[in-house]
Amino acid sequence: MRASSAVTGTDLIEATGLTRATVIAVCDDLIRRGWVRELQAPKGPGPQKGRPARYFAFNDAAGCVLGLDVGMATVTVLVADLKGRVLARTSKRFAKEPATAAQRRATITHAVDQALASAGLGHPAVLAAGIGVSTVVDRHGNVAPGHRLAPYFDLGLQTEVWKEYGWPVLLENDANLAALAEHWCGAGAGVDDLVVMLAGERIGTGLIESGRLLHGSSGGAGEVGTLELVDGVGSHDGIARLARRWGTELLASGEPTLIRDLVGPGTTRVSARFVFEAAAAGDAAAADILERIGRRMARIIALLGTFLNPELVVIGGAVASSAAMLLPTITAELPRLSGTPPQVAVSGLGDAIVATGAVRLALDYVEQNALGLTPAQPQQDPRALS
């Protein structure tokens, strides 16, 4: 029913192989539970013979799910219906460091409340919340201790923050959720051997093998934290950080470059955006920086191709649209570096990629546990609960 606008009892019999009596009994039960709506039968031409067919539809307004991307500086919240359609989006910046755990929790809850209000929904409408965090999360959904960023994200989000509402709260690594998002509705849709790289400030990867998300024994699969051992790479710095650093060095060198005109007089620090803009305008020095970044990314992708043999590697996150300029260098370099070079693409999901994956995580939970959950209000749009 989720995949269709409306189905008849006959449609369901053909799809399931069940008897008519069983199909109708199950549909009536799902209607009582609030997961299914019965639609008015369309009127055909002329008089109808016999009992009219009953039409059923999945009640995508039986509740909603939340998808959160909790980063170091910003939290983004998506509210989606039960077919995954986004109803509202909100982003909030955390207080400047050192922000306390209480301050970070307050910003997160404020962002959620604002997103629900924008969607016209109340807290009882939420059936599950997925949250992506920028640190290692084990396969049981817990922040793995012992990692540098763990204290910023071990905030009691699963147990303390929304306990008054009783929401199922599911925690996952941000790159893993990026992989779920791409596999669900992005460039990796239908690709079961997939790597998704979040490559803005630091390199992190989500790995899908045979359609299944990989975590590793303690959640560290895809962390690529030892890139300093790779010749020609040397760190896990991402595309934006490298462009910013090398652009700033170029400006300080005094070499002629359009970047200087873009940043304006008296500015010594270069943002990544200006490096890409200058290269697009034909600036040779800026283009050289992108060439260096492209060769570096090709080495990382070749390493992933050698060990994991994915069909596709997707570069995602806020830098994805700019990263398209790196593809010619990457694709030219890969055959020289790997005997099994994967295809490479950039994501079209933008900076919502992690929150989109968090929505998918929450929807998976609802689908797997539907009979143990109570819809917001049977046969009623949950927006009425606000």
UniProtKB/TrEMBL annotation:
Entry-linked Pfam families: ROK
InterPro entries attached to this UniProt entry: ATPase_NBD (IPR043129), ROK (IPR000600), WH-like_DNA-bd_sf (IPR036388), WH_DNA-bd_sf (IPR036390)
Family: Belongs to the ROK (NagC/XylR) family.
Name the UniProt record assigns to this protein: ROK family protein
Biological source species: Arthrobacter mobilis
Organismal lineage: Bacteria, Bacillati, Actinomycetota, Actinomycetes, Micrococcales
